[in-house]
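Can anyone check this?
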Amino acid sequence: MKRFFIIAVASLALVATGCQKWLDINTNPNYVSDADIKLLLPSAQLNMAAKVGYDLSLYGYFWSQYVVQCSTTNQYYTIMTNDVTNSTFTGPWSYFYSRVLPTLHEVIDKAEETENATNFSLEAKATLAYSLYLLTSLYDEVAYSEGYVTPSQTPHFDSGKDIQATIVRLLEDIRSINAETAADDEIVNTTVSSDMIFKGDTDAWFQFVNTLYLKVLMRDFDANKSKIQSLLAEGNFLEKDAAFDNFSDASDKSSPLYESDRRQLNTTNNIRCCSDIFNVLDKNDPRLGYYYDNNPASGVAGTEYGLVGDPTETSRLALGATDPVFFSTVDEALFLQAEAYARLNNAAKAQETYEAAIEAAFDRVTSNSSIVIKAEDVAALLAGPYAFEAGPVETMVEQIINQKWASNVRSMPIESWFDLNRTGYPTRGKTITDYHGVLTSGYPVRFIYSKTSADYNPNSPTPVEVNVKMWWHK
């Protein structure tokens, strides 16, 4: 690498489920110091998918209260009970800093030095913005000014608010890229075989950037109101899902969470349905059969969050070997727009995009399964239990986020946890179970800075408790 930095680890010897082994950042024999740009981009995307598809999905499923621990096993009991330490979250932090960010840095540098590579710059910078969004959403403060922009083995960290501003500037820089130039460069210097997310579709990348931009701006709605209004007027949000779907039903090649939970554990009965889902989804919603399987005779069934689920009486979380790892979806883009319109007190547009979001969520299920969902059944749900109710802003926002939460099962559970922290919806004690686990007060709202970061970097922030809110949390 031209720029080399160490953030969190001295050496790692864990396994990245379904992808590849952890290696010492200083002596990684799999890293080619002058690799072709077309090999570097998919490497960064693969490593990002490994963490989003396993660690972040696993915590998202539990902390968004979609699932509970099985009563006959105990693999995830400490997650459900929030019994975590600063050693728990080393994996995602170290992986992003040892693999994802250095590789993206290299791609961006090489793109600037290569003719007709605007498309590579677009895709790598968008992936960088998303990576920073995840890191600050999980840990708050992030080493960026030192450690990424300026190489450092002992970087100071930027505050969460500063990282928010950095992501906004980065996304605005990407949005200023000439779309025609990027499309032309894609023809000359194609990323079709390198881009594992959109297969070189530069229009889709700009839509992903706009969707991420709206999501980031929504964390400080009042301060960003004018930008949000302009973005809504501009449109051009996701029209196809942003996902890594290059998996096969074979050992070490399947979707990360499936690989770990269903192929490598000594049980396949883990991760049971939480009954909180029935407080939002109608019992006749056909998506329930996509979300949960191994159902008892009574059909899909769950237990209250915080309790363990008897495998003979509760359903199991459905996972597939080839399940995509989603980074954003069409329905997420529409739900974001619906929330923004609701906060602008535009009930008509909020309802229009809310209904379109639910329809898109159903479409995603049919596209990724054999389940047949009739249009008239979706229309009946929208006219009945899912009917939009115009009213006060918070009333509209609550029903939008509730349905967004219910649509994120088996796609982006971590995003539901972020929304729960940001908005307070679904409401604990009203819509979903009020459960603190081992915490004396509050709920888990962040990952704790990794122990390896604290051990090897004297400038690492002092670890705070898992229930200490960040600046954008409600």
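Reply from J.R.: I decoded it. Residues 128 and 141 are 16 Å apart (CA to CA).
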